[in-house]
Amino acid sequence: MAHDAHEAKKEMVAIYPKKLGKKRAEQIVVTELGADGSVPEIKANVRSSPGIITQRGCAYAGCKGVVIGPSRDILSIVHGPIGCSFYAWLTRRNQTRPPSDSDPNFITYCLSTDMTEQEIVFGGEKKLKAAIKEAYDVFHPKAIAVFSTCPVGLIGDDVHAVARQMKEELGINVFAFSCEGYRGVSQSAGHHIANNQLFKHVIGLNELAHEDKFKINLLGEYNIGGDAFVIEDLFRRCGIKLIATFSGNSDYDSMANSHTADLNLVMCHRSINYVAEMMEKKFGIPWLKINFIGAAATAKSLRKIAEYFDDAELKAKVETVITEEMPKVDVAQKDVKSRCRGKTAMLFVGGSRAHHYQVLFNEMGMEIVAAGYEFGHRDDYEGRKVLPTIKVDADSKNIEEVEVRPDETRYMPRLSQDRKAQLTNPELEFQDYVGMMPEMEDGALVIDDISHHETERLIELYKPAIFCAGIKEKYVVQKMGIPCKQLHSYDYGGPYAGFEGAINFYREIDRMVNMKVWSLVKAPWQTFEPQPEPAPVAAD
Ligand code: CFM
């Protein structure tokens, strides 16, 4: 380890006022795996402290931008000031591929009610109704989703009543989200709100039956940079039928039909574990945590699916695909390892990638010296076993907990009690997620909701070979002479999922950590020399 993690923690928090320092100290831990598999407790999913310059987003971003946005034919209307739409317009690289050119694809559009002072004072429901009607007349979508921005909650517009009314009037599905930006401490609240409404208003509405043997849904894969395309291809080759993806490269009908699947795969636990749990309670569909980031993780995930279905033919097909793909991966891995082995990386992203991408770096022989989520919860760090011990605070109470009961006619347990009892191998992560920390080396730093100051100190202390984050940090980091890989948008690159994606990633990181240019970079403030004051002009 390049630097002592305990010392680094002290140095990072030293500058803070006492109270803030105490809080941040609870959000920064040094990894240490106990003999019983325990990891240190971390404080997470709490309000960001004013002034620390957090990288977090808002609940509206998590609901509209993250969970619902990638579906191509649900027409999204943002009820709010125009800026909330404009600044969220096409900023996430969720790709989609309609079956033909004549199929709807609304992803490139940006619809807003353009709320102004007039509506803030007199109410915006009338304008929202008119907007829904106008959007319907232009696009004739199957479904319209309405997203609330901060002022909507503040003035009390009843978006749900408007949605109900318009649903009746237009004869299509119209539903709304109370996802005002301030609803929670981060975008994580928006994920939960989106999950609830998808569950209440979409899932289970389409009864199309499928004859296929291995029917799954992929939850929490948003097709950034084409990742979902790679995963879909793997499923196809293995003979696995993908009913719906939530929500990368997805459409409304497939989501409405998702209750016909026999297994839910959870890719991003943070953003969609609620749907997985609710579908299990209502329809009896179990879920498995999988990860298609990293070649070994992809192979393991495919094997987990085959293990769940316990079918010899499926197992054989999975092995064939792995054997077809692994030789190319091995060659690329060997090549990059010769240049990357032992180099260090830091990852500060969202609520799942800071964990998943560690696999890729490890496959390259690189070491993770620090990692953290922007808005993960304790279970994303420590594993779901800590769920019963997580304190419910005022902020989390703010979000509806949907009461779910088994569906009277459609609840169908997919596994017998005996079979369920066989799936207890912790490696399988059957209805479980072990979290980021147990899979990290001892002595690394884990930092929740990292501040700008901590980012700078960390880089100065460790001088990592690469720092992974997002656009907000990218250029600050690079001006410090360290390459920054965006793990949200992939810097216009990708896909990074599956075997093919792993090779893309190895090559990209190899190029970045071995480029000489970074050692020559000096930030403008490091080279700036104050100019002498100009001499005063003599008066006549
Ligand atoms: Fe899940 Fe995501 Fe992420 Fe996320 Fe996100 Fe994203 Fe992310 Mo940016 S759903 S938690 S809210 S994996 S947009 S595709 S990259 S912060 S780590």
Describe the protein's architecture and organization.
This protein has 540 residues and is of the alpha/beta class. It contains 23 helices and 14 strands. The strands form 3 sheets. Strands 1-12-11-10-13-14 form a 6-stranded mixed beta sheet, with helices on both faces. Strands 3-2-4-5 form a 4-stranded parallel beta sheet, sandwiched between helices. Helix 10 (227-238) links the parallel strand 6 (215-221) and strand 7. Helix 1 (5-13) packs antiparallel against helix 19 (452-462). The chain binds FE-MO-S cluster. FE-MO-S cluster is lined by residues 62, 66, 92, 187, 220, 222, 224, 268, 270-271, 349-353, 488.
Largest sheet: 6 strands, mixed
**Strand order, largest beta sheet:** 1-12-11-10-13-14
Low-confidence stretches: none
Class inferred from helices and paired strands: alpha/beta
Mean pLDDT across residues: 96
Shape: globular
Q: Distance between the terminal alpha carbons, to the nearest Å?
A: 68 Å
User: Which band does the percent of strand residues land in?
Assistant: 5-15%
The number of helices is 23
- What is the gyration radius calculated from CA atoms? 24 Å
The share of residues in helices is: 40-55%
Multimerization status = single chain
Name the bound molecules. Answer: FE-MO-S cluster
Number of strands: 14
Keywords:
23 helices; six-stranded mixed beta sheet; four-stranded parallel beta sheet; 14 strands; single chain; 43% helix; alpha/beta; binds FE-MO-S cluster; 540 residues
